Every structure is written in structure tokens, then in C-alpha cells.
Amino acid sequence: MSDEKREQDAPESEVSSGADAVELHEGGPEEIDDAKSAPADRDTQGPFDVSEVPAMRPYVDLGGIKVAPREGLQLRLEVDERANRVVAVSLEYQESLLQVQAFAAPKTTGLWHGVRADLAQQMTSQGGTATEETGPLGPELFVETPAAADQGGARQVRFIAVDGPRWMLRGVIMGKAATDAAVRERVLDLFRELVVVRGDQPMPPSELLPLRVPEGVQAQRQPNPGQAQGGAQPA
């Protein structure tokens, strides 16, 4: 795997508004399910908590997230220039991009159901369509938004997430895997190999787990990403 750190040059892979926080659904006529959303075999098949993996297994250590190396995988870090911190990990694989973030969560309840509802509301309010589907990890949100006038067509993005012990790991799938089920299966395998390091420090629910640049590597900074808005959105 090559650790490629560069400023993103495609709007689809940029971290824009909401990259570094998740806002839970508030108010509204419907009560949001706060149960954890995770596959039954999460503790043995991933995504893993750091307590569930052998200490000797090699990973790229990014702080709150550890990435298992594999052939054909390119990794880059997204940095909020104003806050001077890493806010997301982007993994290029199988003609697709998987952007991941890990958030603090309560011990007994989950975040994904509430975050998913906020995302759906936000995307539709911006003129897109949001369709909930059931995937191997549980509920997913498939979003189509109008592309730029000079590009034509629609932009397609798929949101996935898993609630773990005191964390939520969220992924945004772009590129071929967003619509191609066979490719998406391989990208989901990559997602399930990720390890989340929650840490013991007290953190409010939905706060981004700290990420860091590995020693000896520089990350390109994202210029002026917007403020967090309901549920975090991709570019």
C-alpha cells in the first residue's frame, strides 16, 4: 500500500461541511431509534475495536483508526486547515474512494440511526434523493445529487456505518463501488478490516476521534472546509 498524501483535486473526494462532527437528530415528529446498528459478527469480522485484534498484526496507525495494508490500496489524510487537525481518512481502492471517520458514542446506545435520518433530511433539502437500503453491515443510505452544470448527470454516494463499543465508524463510498455491488463487496471487506481506537478519555457522543499523521509523512491540508451540519456530509 502506498501512503499518498495530497490535496484532493476532485470535488467528489473532498471533505466539505461536516467533516469533523456529527449532529444527532433533534426534534421532529418521529422518535429516532438509538439502538446500535452493527452486523452480528462485528466482533470477529470487523470493523474491530482495538481490544479485538492481535497486537502483533501490522497496521498503519492513524490514531483513532488503524488501516490494514493491502495491495492496490492508496491512503491519504484530509486536514482541516483552520483547526490544524486531520479530520478523515480517504482510501482509494478498486476504482472507488472510501472516506472514513470514527466518532465517540455512548456505551449502550448507537448513533447511526439518528445520523442517517439527519443525512437523508439534509440531502433531500439540497435537491438530492436519499434512499435507505439494507446492506451486509445493516442500513445504508444511497444518495444521488445533481452534478455540476458542466458535468451533467447525477452524483452518487453511499453512506455506511457501524456502531461499535463506545464508537461509530462511518464510511462514505464514492466511485464505482457506490453502484456496483461486486466492487462494493470488496470495498466493504476493506471497511471491515479497519480498527477503531476509542481510548479511555471521556468524550461527548458524536465527537470525532483524534487522527494523526504517521511519523515521517506529511499531509496536504484542506482549505477552509465548512462548518459541521446535520450528520456530516461528503463533498
From TrEMBL:
Residue spans with biased composition (Basic and acidic residues)?
22-44
Record protein name field: DUF3710 domain-containing protein
**Bias type Low complexity, positions:** 218-235
What's the source species for this entry? Leucobacter chromiireducens subsp. solipictus
Q: Where is this region: Disordered?
A: 1-53, 214-235
